[in-house]
Amino acid sequence: MMKADAVFEGGGIKGIGIVGALSYCESCSCFEWQRVAGTSVGAIIAALIAAGYTAKDLKRLTINTKYSDFLDKDSIQKVPVIGKALGFLKEKGMYSGDKFEEGMGKVLAEKGVYKFKDLMENGESRLKIVAADITQKRMLILPDDLRDYGIDPNEFSVALAVRMSISIPFYFKPVELTANGSTSYIVDGGVCCNFPITIFDVSDTPRWPTIGFKFQNPDISYTSRGRTDALSFMADIADTMTGDNKTVWDKPENLARTILIPTVGVESVEFNISDEKSIKLFKSGYRSAQEFIKNWNFEEYVKKYRTSYEDQSLA
Q1: Which of 55, 120, 130 is nearest to 282 (CA)?
Q2: DSSP class of residue 221?
Q3: From CA 128, how far away is CA 111, in angstroms rounded?
Q4: Contact 16, 44 (CB under 8 A)
Q5: Which listed residue (40, 184, 284, 288) is catalytic?
Q6: pLDDT in tens, 81-90
Q7: Predicted confidence (pLDDT) per residue in 225-275, tens digit
Q8: Catalytic residue among 72, 118, 188, 201
Q9: Which secondary-structure segment (H or E) carries 183?
Q10: Is 224 one of the annotated active-site residues of the chain?
């Protein structure tokens, strides 16, 4: 079994495909994950892997999770008929995200993980989460960048950091981060970097590989199908903002270390996904990892792309 770091792309409900890919990697004992990073749903998966959950555990959680429960509402959003509109106007999101954070906290607590200090190894967090500060117009790598806000990274809640990263604009209200006398609005990391594949790269020869997990997105948008309602419009905005913007993923050296997962027509915010489509997406990820592993050779990769590591790190 080879040591490796893993980076997971954001993509909402499409994360089921990543679970499928991880399941194949686990079945063939290919990799022993060291450090993990992700954006949005990739942050969820990364946090669970860092906490000690296996791919088998993730599959169980996937089967037992009712994703529509994430679409919780607080007091203003529960107002009949106009609640979603009020939530968007007053709180900048149709859904609160509170229930997600609570659920994430409980799952992490089962492994004894509450704060980033619980994931430290040799003075560094094994987990990196990408979020976006739209007030300061910057990408956040959590927990590292919390120091810029006068916050101790070690004492910061992992569940809250994941919630920041999954706060899809217009869907979930942003997280307010108040520090140094000012407030920033934190949203889905896909606004800045949906696939931080270079986050663990260094200028010298890597000790072990970084394996990326990314979606292939041939999806047709809601509105292109003739849907004109407000939710379809917002779904397309969410998919666009959590797309492949401002990344370097398509460089040959990054494609060569990335498992590309066809999304079989599943959209990011398809929270009412059917069992049939879930299984299809899981199998898509499983087969994609199988094909990748068949052709992957780390030594050959380093020989071919050695110089590509210089000056690429996001960290």
Answers
A1: 55
A2: P
A3: 18
A4: no
A5: 40
A6: 344 444 444 4
A7: 566 555 565 566 656 555 555 456 788 999 999 999 999 999 887 888 899
A8: 188
A9: strand 182-188
A10: no
